Amino acid sequence: MTKQALIIIDMQEIFFNSEENALYERNSLIKQTNTLIEKARAEQVPVVFIQHCEEHPDDEFYPGKPDWEICHQLKRLPEDVVFRKTRWDSFYRTGLLDWLRRNEIEQIVFAGAQTEFCLDTTLRNAYSIGYQQNILAKDAHSTLDSEVLSAEQIIRHHEYVWNGRFANVQPVEQITFGR
Predict the structure, then answer these.
(1) CA 48 to each of CA 26, 77, 131, 151: distance values in angstroms, whole numbers, following the listed order
(2) Which domains does the chain possess?
(3) Rg over CA atoms, the chain
(4) What pTM was computed for the model?
């Protein structure tokens, strides 16, 4: 049996409590991410949260600010592991890789935000450091519109690039844990 972990990246309050930073399809994103969390817990698969931090006290992502908190709508438990990061890569200067190795994790299921930034950077690095059987939850990641592309276009483009290369892109309903 492949040992798995569910990693949820940067699902922080700023993306859910303001219209100007509202993630595309954010209500569905919460629902689908919570479904993933429930499926993982049912098979005793660890749930890991990644929390972006900025170093300047005026920034919304400064530790302790309301927007910085992990989204309260997620079914997070006190025993869930949380790694704080200061760059787009969830492995950079965090304990994530050591934790994965210590827990003998072989496959990562990814969800979170933002598609083209922290999720993309982390997914590609995970592949490069040896996690090559990963799954991306197709309907449990999102982003914002950019000046160039809509959020929907960004998501579709990245799923096309990732699928079969850096991860297998699967709808939440098809993702199974504990197998």
Answers:
(1) 20, 10, 16, 25
(2) 4-174 (3.40.50.850)
(3) 15
(4) 0.96
